[in-house]
Input
Amino acid sequence: MTSVLWFRRDLRLHDHPALAAAIEAGPVAPLFVLDPALVRGRWASANRTAFLLASLRELDAALRARGARLHVRIGRPADEVPRFARDVGASAVFVSRDYSPYARRRDAAVARALTACGIAFHARRGTLVHEPEDVRGAAGQPLTVFTPFYRAWSALPLRAPLPAPAAIPAAAHPDPGALPALEALGLPRPVDALLPAGESAARARLERFLAAPVCAYAETRDRLDLAGTSRLSQDLRFGLLSPLEIVTRARALPCDTAKFVAEVAWREFYHHILWHHPRVLREPFQQAYAAIPWRDDPAAFDAWAAGRTGYPLVDAAMRELAATGYMHNRARMVAASFLAKDLLLDWRLGETHFMRHLVDGDVANNDGGWQWAASVGTDAQPYFRIFNPVLQAKKFDPEGVYLRRWLPELCRVPDRYLHEPWTMPLQVQQAAGCVIGRDYPAPIVDHAAARDRAVHLFEQARKAATTAG
Output
C-alpha cells in the first residue's frame, strides 16, 4: 500500500512516528508543501523561511541516502496534498500532529479532500512529548497554570524514541518538484548569521549541549555573557529534533537536568494552551485586561525595534535580534516587559515584530511569552512586577560583555557607567566617545515613572473588570 508522508514541522528522520507508520504500510512518497498562507501570511519571516529551505535541502539528502527523496509542491495544501496522493496512487497520508488554529483548519480541509478521494488521513504524535488531550487535572480539565501542568506532564510515561530508518521503500513519482529560492517566494534577504540548518546540525548542537552544558543549565541559562543556553529552540520549532528524545536523554544523565526539562515543558504548556484556547492569538487570555488603554506611539515603537531606547540591555537585545534572528531568553523577557510596561504599547506589536525576525518564531511560544511579559496571559508575570532593565543588566551581564558586543558605541564607556550611560559626566562621555543624545540616545522614558503608570492602569483595569463582573 503506497502512502504519502507529508512533512510539516517534523523535518527529521529520527524518532518520527508518522514516518515509521508510513514505512510499515508500504512504499512511501515523502512530500513537503510550501504554503503561501504561511510563507507570506501574518507571520511571514525571511529568516525562518531561509532556515526552513536549508533544512529541507538536507532532509532531501537524508531521504536520498535511504532510497527515497523529497517531493516539493507550492500551493494550498488542500489542493496539493490530495493531488499528489492521487498521482502516486496512495491510499493514505501520514502526518505529525500540528496544533495552531490555522494548522487545525488546514488539516481538516486536507482530510475532507482526501476522504472525497477515498484516501485516509492519519495524524500521529511526534511534535510534542505529550498530547494536549493527555495532560489533565484531577477532574479531567485542561490546566492553565504551569506548576500543576508540569506535575501532570512529568507523571506521564514516555514512549521509547524511535531510531532513524536505515532504508525507506520509495514510491516513484516522475515530477519531484524543486525547492524555490527565497527571492522567488517574495521574501527579502535573511540575516547572514543564521545557525547551520538541518537535522545533522541540530543533532550536533544537541550532543554538544548534553555533553556538559546541560548540567550547569540552571546556573547559567539566564547569564547573557555566557553560552549557557541550549540553542535548540529553532531545532524544536522545525522538528529537526524530537522533544521526546531530548527529554529522555536529559533525564538519563547523571546530573540534575530538571530545570532544562522544565523549560521543554514550558514549550509544551503554551502549545496546550493554544490547543484548548485558540482565541489567545487574537486577545489576552485574561479578559480582565482586554480594555487596557495601550498607547499609540509609533516613534516609541520604532525606537524600541531599532534598539535606540537609551536602555542598554533593551537596545542590545533588539540589535541581537536584528543581526542574528535570535535573542537570548532573558533578553526577550526584558525587551518585552519594556515595550508593554515601560512604553505601554500593545504587546501584539511586539509579538508580530518578534515573529518577523525570530528563526525559532513559534506562534504558541511567542504568544505565550508575550502575554506572560505583558501580564495578560495564563500563569502571567504579576502586573506589579516589572523588569528594571538596569538591574537586570547588572545581574545577568555584570561586566557588560553582552552589552558591548551589540552596542559598539558603548565599548569605551567605563564599567561604572555602562549599565546607566546617561549618568556619565559630560567629560567622561567625551573621553569615551559616547556623548548621550549624539552617539547613544538618552532614555526615551523614565523607568520609575513608567512603572508607576503601568501599575496604575493595570489596577484600574482589574478593578473595572471586577466591578463589571
About this structure: The first strand starts at residue 3 and ends at 7.
